[in-house]
Amino acid sequence: MAGRGKLIAVIGDEDTCTGFLLGGVGELNKNRKPNFLVVEKDTSITEIEETFKSFLARDDIGIILINQFIAEMIRHAIDAHMQSIPAVLEIPSKEHPYDASKDSILRRAKGMFSADDFR
Amino acid sequence: MYSNRKHPKFANEYIVHWMLANLTQGMGVQINEASQRIDECLLRFMDQLELLEEKRERLNSLIEQGWFSISKARYSMGNKQVSTLQYGNEIEPQVQINVRLLENGEAEFDAQRVECLRSQHLEKDLGRVEDIGPKDEGVRRRGVTKEENPKDQPAAPRACVSRETSPPNQGMSQHQDPLKWFGILVPQSLKQAQASFKKVVELSAEVATLQCTVVATRKELQALMGNKQEETPSTEADKQKDTGNVRQSEEESASDS
């Protein structure tokens, strides 16, 4: 199965990760490396960023789901990722509702409509 | 900005601006081919954005439902009964994403449950069982060698048995339901949470595909606009030339008279 299909990785708070693992997304590979990161109060930004970059580097991951408030912490890393695979999806969290104006993809789309385009 | 109500208005506003800009640029006479292509691309882009917005809303509401069900389960089971501590020691994925790269750089994501794949594999395996028949010849040959090497006799059948039994066992351990991490008799709300997150996983693949499409269309649009901007200075120069020629002819006609 690992040879053909790709995985969905999750970076999120406890409830988000629990929910997606219930949905059957989780994996612990042979090196006991998970495809998810539960972000708690004491999780450092560098740890989040390193995990995100390690997910980007893994070729068995197709989609990365990340809570938007966590994405805000590592916005520069998300904006720097321009490839289509893995796709990065920002999802809401319990305390922070989804804000489309913060989403990297929609910001890029919105950025198109500058005054220069209509001259 | 991208709320469901405002979005179409947002789209229309820009399309009107765009059309006006094109009309004024072409002096209201002709909308050239490049402009038409840009307009079509822009409309497609807006449609895709709208669809993405709809799917996003569905995704977000499903996630919210899931959290609500988890909270209900936590309320009935106890505060620490639904947490990271209950995650299994061995976690195997039950969903896989099939990714297809298209020619224009877009990627298509498709979520597939492993149970579906398993049933496909089982069908294939059933086919294989029928194929085993002719292989009996090989076993018979082994029987001949048994007489030659009597010490190897017990080892060979054991190996066969272990080979036969191991794949189903692996299958059982691989596809353990994550719901069982939280107990055998879990509340209904936890099952509901699982159901809604399963839907979220499927929907997230669709959203990922749409995001890729939006980005690709945006690139296409930018490329078209770039091409048009390259073309426009030449047309302006042509117009200047034309006006220059007209002036010259006017001057000549004035001098003749």
Automatic annotation (TrEMBL), chain A:
Keyword vocabulary terms for this entry: Hydrogen ion transport, Ion transport, Transport
Gene Ontology MF terms in the entry: proton-transporting ATPase activity, rotational mechanism
InterPro entries, alphabetized: ATPase_V1-cplx_f_g_su, ATPase_V1-cplx_fsu_euk, ATPase_V1_fsu_sf
Annotated Gene Ontology cellular component terms: proton-transporting V-type ATPase, V1 domain
Quaternary organization: V-ATPase is a heteromultimeric enzyme made up of two complexes: the ATP-hydrolytic V1 complex and the proton translocation V0 complex.
Functional note: Subunit of the V1 complex of vacuolar(H+)-ATPase (V-ATPase), a multisubunit enzyme composed of a peripheral complex (V1) that hydrolyzes ATP and a membrane integral complex (V0) that translocates protons. V-ATPase is responsible for acidifying and maintaining the pH of intracellular compartments and in some cell types, is targeted to the plasma membrane, where it is responsible for acidifying the extracellular environment.
Family statement: Belongs to the V-ATPase F subunit family.
Annotated protein name in UniProt: V-type proton ATPase subunit F
Lineage: Eukaryota, Metazoa, Chordata, Craniata, Vertebrata
Automatic annotation (TrEMBL), chain B:
Stretches for region Disordered: 129-176, 224-257
Organism domain of life: Eukaryota
Keywords for this protein: Coiled coil, Cytoplasmic vesicle, Endoplasmic reticulum, Endosome, Lysosome
GO molecular function: unfolded protein binding
Alphabetical GO biological process terms: vacuolar proton-transporting V-type ATPase complex assembly
Transport found in the keyword field: no
Chain intervals with Basic and acidic residues compositional bias: 129-151, 228-250
Cleaved signal peptide residues: none
Annotated localization: Cytoplasmic vesicle, COPI-coated vesicle; Endoplasmic reticulum-Golgi intermediate compartment; Endosome; Lysosome
Subunit structure of this chain's protein: Accessory component of the multisubunit proton-transporting vacuolar (V)-ATPase protein pump.
Database matches in PANTHER family: COILED-COIL DOMAIN-CONTAINING PROTEIN 115
Name of the featured protein: Vacuolar ATPase assembly protein VMA22
Organism: Conger conger
Lineage: Eukaryota, Metazoa, Chordata, Craniata, Vertebrata
